[in-house]
């Protein structure tokens, strides 16, 4: 017999279980049944696809309670584990992001939603047990099985189990019952029946206690919606998603005819912590005629809808279909297209009929959905229809359609400004004339906004126009410039030469009312934020120069013009030019090349005024 140590993260998680931070302890049984069901799926699949020689004719789960010994055993005749698999799968937590979640959990104390994200699985047995024994033998292997045991502290033991049958049995040595602490008598048959019915009724293998089968085994997606309770849907959702919170929306689909399939999809009510991590699990479960084929089937749903969970059961696929074949399968592509349409129309329904749910949805998943504007050309319009954006019009987000309704007489374009935060965007000098003249501007602050606005030319015939880009021609702009442009020409020429390193042009502005200057991008150039993003991804490119716009009505600008007129060789002029440029850059939240130098110039200049 060997004694081994749990990996550090596993130990922490176990600690949390032993000191039970989750009030509902009943779920340990659900977790064991869920693992057993997965193991049975795997065995059946291995016989179908990998030619494993094993008996798959009587796959089932058994529950056995021993009142005397105070133990509960859950046994399956599924795939089982080798010794090394036991060490790897039960002794460690492989999921990325676990350390971070654990840290959050510690801070948050009571937080079932957070634990839900772990898929605590097997470890949840330690909420009710002071010792757990697992005996297993891998299907298709020779020799002895493996016996694993632990009290949930720092270590576990591993031993040979010569007589173990194929499959896995987990025996939970129950702690004394303590109903005040929601620790029930789990050897009580009535309690077991209740838990199985509540959490595991849909499991597709028989769950037996003695001669009795406790579950109905009905595939939820095959049953009419009116016959399934919300609770049953929710339990099923938890089973496939490992999310313990209730889903926001349930979607049933059924297609009959040449290619038959049924789908049951869930939109979660909360984004998983790893929604934006590359290795996050995504995709749907694929079944063929009620037989589980694979998890995480990415072919069934595009990446931008990766938060959608659920099952697709197709009638006409081969049972041993591989991932490679899936990628090319015409029917799968057709299902995928239909699912996307259905999800988008469901979001639209929420938007129109259930603003509160929609708001939750968009807050949690809007950032992901917007990726579709780049990757799913066919549905660009449908995505824009269900998207909402922050706006200067009110604190409430707006759809593009509602924005267009509010457009001012003569306004042809949808104005937006990207940035890091609402306040930064609102206070940007670019906003001044728009605010003054009552033009609404969309405030786009998600990183993905920088990118999709480049890919979407218009909505409903109205061009999307960045107010920090190109020249602005507000219909009602007073043309301060027209009478006085001539006067400014020498100064503009001077500044252009002086700041040639920094900007490609200097011109008078239509968008400023209170600030002296701002920077804008040329209509066809990439924006500084996008440039920064490319750089962060390691794509060095030439620096894109921008345009400095001056407010002719600002005393600093008119004063500068006067000074330049008086004496073009004035020593203070180059410094003022530099300060003017630096201020414009700071005002939009940009980074100065040499902040120390800027600070010194500014301090010296201020010193002369006090
Ligand atoms: N009854 C079983 N038969 C075969 N393998 C099992 C069994 N129970 C657990 N395992 C293996 O141990 C792994 C860890 O199980 P655990 O319940 O901790 O997490 P999980 O099932 O992967 O995650 P989750 O609980 O989120 O589904 C499983 O992924 C599976 O590979």
UniProtKB/TrEMBL annotation:
Report the main location listed first in the record: cytoplasm
SMART domains per UniProt: HATPase_c
Q: Where is this region: A?
A: 1-323
- Give the location in the cell: Cytoplasm
Could you tell me the keywords of this UniProt record?
A: ATP-binding, Chaperone, Cytoplasm, Nucleotide-binding, Stress response
Q: Which residues form the Histidine kinase/HSP90-like ATPase domain?
A: 24-178
Entries under InterPro entries matching the protein: HATPase_C_sf (IPR036890), HATPase_dom (IPR003594), Heat_shock_protein_90_CS (IPR019805), HSP90_C (IPR037196), Hsp90_fam (IPR001404), Hsp90_N (IPR020575), Ribosomal_Su5_D2-typ_SF (IPR020568)
The segment annotated C runs over 533-610
Cross-referenced NCBIfam families, in alphabetical order?
A: PRK05218.1 (NF003555)
This chain's function reads:
Molecular chaperone. Has ATPase activity.
Subunit and partners:
Homodimer.
Q: Which family does it belong to?
A: Belongs to the heat shock protein 90 family.
The entry's protein name is Chaperone protein HtpG
